[in-house]
């Protein structure tokens, strides 16, 4: 059953309250159990790897010894350099959202999985995990500004009206950047989950079955996918502002450009959310670097005109591989999250490859905007140290345990959890959508 109103605990939030850029979190943003680790971290003399790594060894090495091979550490490419170094140091995996989603299922011997990324990624791992595995997130308030404008209580009113109008013809394709409830919606409607690396494959398969696609939540990735597949852009329509649906908006001529006639003709219907990190890019950025001989590669959450102007577009894995394969002397301007670019720059310099962030243009009229994902950055060294130590001591807060269907308020930290029956239904539907994505991806590899 879809929830058609905002959770009573949170109300309808009119604006996302998470900044796009941030530095260290103030102490009052930490859970009480994590404050001692944050205080120690902030007291380090310089907080460079030379001081952070030995400090975290005090907590990570005993945890590794305690759990042995049953412990798995995970982090996303967008995490800051400290977390990437730490997770790699202790034998963990750094990857994009597709690879992270598969980690529990493909490593059944891992019983304790600790993820340093955002909540929807940890929940996806939990959906595909076994009953003997537990999934933990170092900071449960690590959300996603894109997903914040695609909560189930926002999407459900629109989705139910579209299903009522189009019936079985409508299939939901849920980007990985969604909660489990929307992945379950994709499963129930005969759709699938997708990532930025396989969106074109997933959408192509669903369309080949004669379905009209509701693509949730990123309208930029949806539009870029349609363009890549050759779908006429006049048959791609974007729904009205996300929060309007939770406020009672009805399907009408005012809900999309061109009205209901355009909606009925549409091959793809786009939800109206986006990633603040990627919407800063402009085609003028691309033109500036290309005019000076740089190759420009961007993430497909960027606006369509940026993707069209760039030399290439793809997922974080695509970007990382392209940088790794670049020959000495290559110069690459990368349009994606700032931590990723800084990490890639350090690696590339060792091979004589220059990497810059797409917005790093030293001219008036081009303000710098190469910050990292603030929500991802909520998982910092104190959270990793605390999570590992608390787990070892059997004192990990239940709030950090991630089960399928969990919804955490990114500001207050308040969690809503399904009962066992509701969770089992959600897992069955969401797994169907995730496994379909995996089958489409692996069969076309």
- Whole-number radius of gyration? 21 Å
CATH level-4 homologous superfamily of the largest domain: NadA-like
Report the total helices: 19
Which architecture name of the largest domain does CATH use?
3-Layer(aba) Sandwich
Largest beta-sheet details: 5 strands, parallel
* The number of domains: 3
Would you kindly provide a brief summary of this structure?
It is built from 19 helices and 15 strands.
Describe this structure in words.
This protein has 445 residues and is α/β, with parallel strands linked by helices. It has 3 domains: 27-144 and 375-413, Rossmann fold (3-Layer(aba) Sandwich); 147-274, NadA-like (Rossmann fold), CATH 3.40.50; 283-357, Rossmann fold. The protein has 19 helices and 15 strands. The chain has helices at 35-42, 49-67, 81-89, 97-101, 103-106, 119-127, 145-148, 152-166, 180-188, 199-208, 219-229, 242-246, 259-265, 283-291, 304-309, 316-325, 338-349, 381-392, 420-443; strands spanning 71-76, 93-95, 112-116, 134-137, 170-175, 192-194, 212-216, 236-238, 268-270, 295-298, 312-313, 331-335, 354-357, 407-408, 415-416. The strands form 4 sheets. Strands 6-5-7-9-8 form a 5-stranded parallel sheet, sandwiched between helices. α3 (81-89) links the parallel β1 (71-76) and β2 (93-95). The radius of gyration is 21 Å and the shape is globular. The protein starts with 34 loop residues before the first helix and ends with a helix. Residues 1-23 have low confidence and may be disordered.
């Amino acid at each position: 059953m879809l929830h058609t109103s905002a959770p009573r605990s949170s109300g309808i939030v009119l604006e996302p309250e998470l900044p796009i850029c941030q530095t260290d979190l103030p102490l009052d943003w930490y859970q009480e159990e994590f404050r001692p680790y944050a205080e120690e971290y902030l007291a380090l003399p310089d907080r460079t790897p030379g001081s952070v790594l030995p400090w975290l060894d005090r907590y990570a090495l005993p945890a590794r010894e305690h759990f042995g091979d049953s412990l798995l550490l995970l982090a996303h490419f967008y995490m800051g350099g400290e977390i990437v170094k730490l997770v790699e140091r202790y034998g963990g995996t750094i990857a994009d959202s597709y690879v992270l989603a598969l980690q529990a299922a493909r490593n059944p011997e891992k019983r304790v999985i600790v993820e340093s990324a955002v909540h929807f990624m940890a929940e996806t791992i939990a959906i595909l995990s076994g009953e003997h595995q537990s999934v933990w997130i170092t900071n449960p308030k690590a959300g996603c500004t894109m997903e914040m404008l695609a909560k189930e209580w926002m999407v459900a009113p629109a989705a139910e009206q579209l299903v009522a109008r189009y019936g079985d013809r409508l299939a939901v394709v849920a980007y990985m950047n969604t909660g489990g409830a929307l992945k379950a919606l994709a499963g129930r409607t005969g759709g699938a989950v997708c990532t930025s690396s396989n969106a074109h494959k997933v959408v192509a398969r669903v369309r080949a079955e004669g379905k009209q696609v509701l693509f949730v939540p990123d309208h930029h990735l949806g539009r870029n996918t349609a363009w890549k597949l050759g779908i006429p852009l006049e048959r791609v329509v974007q729904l009205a502002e996300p929060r309007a649906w939770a406020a009672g908006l009805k399907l009408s001529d005012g809900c999309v450009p061109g009205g209901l006639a355009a909606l009925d003709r549409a091959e793809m219907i786009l939800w109206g959310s986006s990633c603040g990190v990627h919407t800063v890019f402009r085609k003028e950025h691309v033109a500036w670097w290309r005019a000076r001989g740089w190759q420009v590669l961007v993430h497909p959450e960027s606006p369509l005109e940026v993707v069209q102007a760039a030399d290439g577009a793809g997922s974080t894995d695509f970007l990382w591989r392209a940088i790794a394969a670049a020959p000495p002397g290559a110069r690459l301007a990368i349009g994606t999250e700032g931590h990723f670019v800084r990490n890639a720059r350090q690696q590339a310099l060792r091979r004589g490859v220059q990497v810059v962030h797409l917005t790093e243009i030293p001219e008036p009229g081009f303000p710098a905007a190469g910050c990292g994902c603030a929500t991802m950055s909520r998982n910092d060294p104190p959270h990793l140290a605390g999570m590992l130590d608390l787990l070892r001591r059997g004192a990990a807060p239940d709030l950090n345990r991630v089960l399928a269907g969990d919804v955490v308020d990114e500001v207050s930290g308040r969690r809503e959890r399904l009962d066992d029956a509701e969770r089992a239904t959600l897992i069955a539907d969401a797994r169907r959508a995730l496994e379909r994505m995996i089958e489409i991806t692996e069969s076309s590899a």
